[in-house]
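Two proteins, back to back. First:
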Amino acid sequence: TYKAVQLYQKVYNIRFAEPLNGMATLYNANAAYKMPQGLEGYMVTDAPTAGNVTTQVAYTANEIVPQGTALLLKGTVGNSYAPATTQTAKTVDFTNWLYGQRNAEGMTSVDGDFYYYKLSVDDNMSNPGFYWGAEDGAAFKLNKPYTAYLAVPKSYSPAAILLFDLQTSIEDVLQGANAEGEPIYDLSGRRVVKPTKGIYLLNGRKVVFE
């Protein structure tokens, strides 16, 4: 019935809430869609080896995202967005380490030997990034039809936690006291209580402690 169709359409709405700081993933296996106003779609463009991933803007507002494209989205916390499906698609020439395909059981499934990650936060409900979706990076079940995941070949030896910075080319120089109270990680994704001089990950950004 008409009401049933309306209820189905609401499943596709994307709401951006804390604690993911306005981030979400999206994958539509069945149709291309127009990127809603206020959203940007990022691809992971470099295989991570040191606790972080490299992202690049691939689609901005009103551009057409091809069917089967997995993206990391940046929106406004508290807002909802409803991508409109369409038939015409723009393609981009980026390597993308995000995927959306599932097997018959709904599990993450990429041909080869991979670690699998989901967009999540740490135990303190902060520090959004890509975390193993199952023990030792094994395949895990995707409970929502439109979510994407990160898959990295085991040959790259990535960390269990991969943080991202949408401005990855910028490195901040901080004094240790400026980071008091914020979780700090080394480049292998391990929590650091008292960082010494060097490069660390803070709130998903590379920072230099002097």
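And the second protein:
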Amino acid sequence: MRQSNRYEGVAMELSKLFLQRHDVLHSFWLDEFERCVAAELRRVRPHPRVNSIAWSLWHIARVEDVSVNRFVADQPQILDLPWRQRLRVDLRHHGAGMTFAEVDDLSQQIDLAALHAYRHAVALRTREVVATIDQIDLNATLGPEPLRAILEDEGVAHPAAAGLFENYLGWTKGRSLMALGLTHGFEHVGEIGVIASLLGVELD
């Protein structure tokens, strides 16, 4: 019996919807935070229990880079180009599990201009992948061995984030694309808005 494909016949509509929301995420919300919040303030954690805006922008880009390129398209990450040197952040994980001390270190050392460029390079690659969405089996799941290789051998999981394997196991490519390549970024938009407010910044 032929297995049902929940995405069959709707790939182009899904692509159009994804790209519309993805453009809003990057070109409106995230670019707007960079425009409205001064560079040095983006490095600040204004409360002991919150992250910095710089860390949040890096984390959003890293999760999108990993999820779209490794989980969905099975191709190298943008980070595998010489981005770690440009960013001045020699990390391959995507930030989950970091301590606030580690967040402080990253926030102070990261090159903010390079971060902007990296985030937009990731976004461009995502749009290229989504443009060929009809060639991707969005129902396919990432098996335990490939997933473990990405998280552990490729260094995507922070040493304190061992639970990522159990969390991601069984996810389909479609879920990875929508949840990690899009929804995750919008979840952090609210967080960044709170951080900006704590910094005393009024957003337009």
